[in-house]
Design goal:
homodimer; alpha+beta; Uridine Diphospho-n-acetylenolpyruvylglucosamine Reductase, domain 3; Alpha-Beta Plaits; 7-stranded antiparallel beta sheet; 5-stranded antiparallel beta sheet; 18 strands; transit peptide (chains A, B); D-lactate dehydrogenase (NAD+) activity (chains A, B)
Chain lengths: 461, 461
């Protein structure tokens, strides 16, 4: 590694390169149960040129590169299993430009979503994608993150207008343009978003933002059973109500929320909803939604127009994963993440709940049910090999159930290492096309190797 | 070609293979000024297996393949400049499944958008993407088509949930799943949509559809100048009004519409608008829009809730290209297709109008201004070499103006051959990544060769 460090130092300052044990340890893990692995070196680029230099050094010495935002990843994407260099983007955290008239913003990859929204608020704008964590926008683009507002505003890929990407050889490309739509060339924006650092490193992102809605109504609805709650969601979607958020939280998770966020929500299967638009239209949408809920035996429907109450509700929802972690010291979090066609959602959630009951570890079901995406969040004792094995088996069962019904193994958390075992089953021969793309763009297999696709010949999948 | 035909015949029936002069001539052109070129053979597959066989024959004899829908393409995509085999998908025109509960439909590539909408109507559903032509859905996916409703519902790429694709070697892949969102694998849906037959042939498409909106209001607004009309659009977008359609049509084009569609619209710069939603919400949106229009000196604002009047308005708009063709017998159509950031739209249209005036050929400006996308439609005398040269120069000037302002050379028509000269300038070094992808997926360069990217070494661009 001495040679690699010396090569890095030809363009990077000493404080941009670390082999410190604590720093390496901080870059050896994500927020979940995945096994840790220490990198050899952590680097902190400040410019695109720095990243380009790091890439060239990586190629010269055949040293793997793993990009890192804040490490809020959930499937081990940021864990450097092949060691080498972790590239931490926390120094590249500038909001470069807000083009108010075009509803566009250009940021460096280390900017977090909360940092961006704080700034955008001054302009009456907001960025829509909201995973639970205060993740970096670079990381969110790398994993095609989404969140509670996806049902209305779309996933991360839908917001990306252009990326500046440093490729394996250190060259720099732009993947899109500033136009709202384009039919020019292959869709590189779409290819690089969700590529999890396996095709290049993002050094600048131009993202679509939205005007803060004129009027917002949040609501909570509780149901006698999980099934009825999910069926209500299906009906709302089919009625075409342009809902902005519709989140399911089960009873076990409501208990965690009440404890962690000091709320006193009834311990029942609950939908958290939100509507954005003009006042007259929203009133009609809320009334229609309430009617549909009642058709599904909803036993309470509370709407909140007050800003503080609404924020508290969504903070509670966003903090749910942390509530579980906080409530189960010493255990590690595992999250399933399937998405299924809406017609399969109710049965999929019922199946998952039954499997979760059999598993017998603390956990709950929650999710972005408007997209057919739900999570089983479970807390596992990593010292108990039997429990870990059964938890993995549970995750697998939930995934296979979804895949058999035309779903996906990951709705929003990405592949990382956690969903590698299901790539062949989900994508079939299309996985070979992905491998060909990976080989063409990263011939030495140094960019976050063995994530999404494994390119080695004869590798058993 | 004898050998190729014999190889095709091992799996295809005689009536699926044609070398008839008239049939070849029908597959030698698109709807515009682009130079024609006769294929050697036209084949009519009926199944995915047929397409797979055709691909294998193409590889065996190194014969180029060009897919063909109804030939409504505008940039020469379907013209077989390298001759070889044209694959006409008109026999693959079945609607395979409508999954009403999931708002999904699976179709063969030869199904046209009007055919699909006629069927969907029975279920209270519609497919949103509406280019002027009654194009096939396979062709629309191949070119990432869009149309008048894109400002609300998105482009073709946004509707594609899954594609069955036959690759160069005859193997068959699925590019997506039935889930509304996924973070699994590379985004092959996005890569294949817009690939214009250069990476594979689509044999099945699963598309997202929508419930027919509860309430629809259409409107026409006229303005004293083109500038004021475009500025009004910019203001509507910035106000965040969820408009479903906003189309600009200039005076010259209103004259064509009035003649061809027997309307008597005032000959003024005009916006055609549409709003979808619940009645109360729409009334508020329409009122707010009218206010904004008036701030921009709108001199008439007429809204239509009557179904027949509304349909007539949109038919008139959709038939505009045909109105021009009909009104200028013996001439050929050329359409520019840039899209620019909204902040650049007014100046871009003014620039285009000035250049069009200098050019001195019949033509007008129209477009999907809500997406920053507009077309200059001009009719040219192909026998007049000077006029053709000046028209090409005009097209180039409009493109360069857009590219210099962060726009794209094609908002929706695609690259084909018409936009090949601008690929390097628009994409820079990213074009080399596109070439690498093309080489990886089509190593013998037989799939619609020399469209989007030219892979030959030393090819001057």
């Amino acid at each position: 590694m001495e040679k690699v460090i010396n090569a890095l130092k030809t363009k990077l300052a000493d404080e941009q390169i670390s082999t410190n044990e604590t720093v390496r340890e901080l870059h050896s893990k994500d927020e979940t149960y995945h096994q840790t692995s220490l990198p050899d070196i952590v680097v902190f680029p400040k410019t695109t040129e720095d990243v380009s230099h790091i890439m060239k050094v990586s190629q010269e010495f055949k040293t793997p590169i793993t990009p890192f935002g804040v490490g809020s990843s959930l499937e081990g994407h940021v864990i450097p299993y092949q060691k080498g260099i972790v590239v931490d983007f926390s120094f590249m955290n500038k909001i470069i430009e807000i083009k108010q008239e075009d509803l566009l913003v250009t940021v460096q990859p280390g900017v977090t979503r909360e940092q961006l929204n704080k700034e955008l608020k001054k302009y009456g704008l907001f960025f829509s994608v909201d995973p639970g964590a205060n993740a970096t926008l670079g990381g969110m683009a790398a994993t095609n993150a989404s969140g509670t507002t996806t049902v209305k505003y779309g996933v991360m890929r839908d917001q990306v207008r252009n990326l500046e990407v440093v490729l394996a050889d250190g060259s720099v490309i732009q993947t899109g343009s500033l136009a709202a739509k384009s039919a020019s060339g292959y869709h590189l924006n779409g290819l690089f978003v969700g590529s999890e650092g396996t095709l290049g490193c993002f050094t600048e992102l131009t993202l679509q933002v939205y005007g803060i809605p004129e009027h917002v109504v949040a609501a909570r609805a509780t149901f006698p059973s999980l099934t009825r709650a999910i069926q209500a969601v299906t009906s709302i979607l089919q009625a075409g109500i342009p809902i902005a958020r519709v989140e399911f939280v089960d009873e076990a998770s409501i208990i965690q929320i009440n404890t962690f966020s000091e709320t006193d929500y009834p311990v029942k299967p609950t939908l958290f909803l939100e509507f954005h638009g003009n006042e007259a239209g929203l009133n009609a949408d809320v009334a229609f939604t309430k009617e549909i809920m009642q058709d599904h035996d909803c036993d309470s429907f509370t709407s909140e127009t007050d800003n503080a109450a609404r924020n508290h509700l969504w903070d509670a929802r966003h903090n749910l994963a942390y509530a579980y972690i906080h409530g189960h010291a010493g255990k590690k979090m595992m999250l399933t993440d399937v998405a299924v066609p809406i017609s399969e959602l109710a049965n999929s959630v019922i199946y998952a709940r039954e499997e979760l009951d059999k598993l017998g570890v603390p956990g709950g079901i929650l999710g972005h049910v408007g997209d057919g995406n739900f999570h089983c969040l479970i807390m596992i004792d990593m010292a108990n090999a039997g429990e870990v094995k059964r938890a993995n088996e549970f995750n697998k069962n939930v995934v296979l159930y979804a895949l058999e019904r035309g779903g996906t193994c990951t709705g929003e958390h990405g592949v990382g290492v956690g969903k590698m075992p299901y790539q062949r089953q989900e994508h079939g021969d299309a996985l070979d096309i992905m491998k060909q793309i990976k080989k063409a763009l990263d011939p030495n297999n140094l960019l976050n190797p063995n994530k999404i696709v494994e390119v080695e010949e004869g590798n058993p999948e």
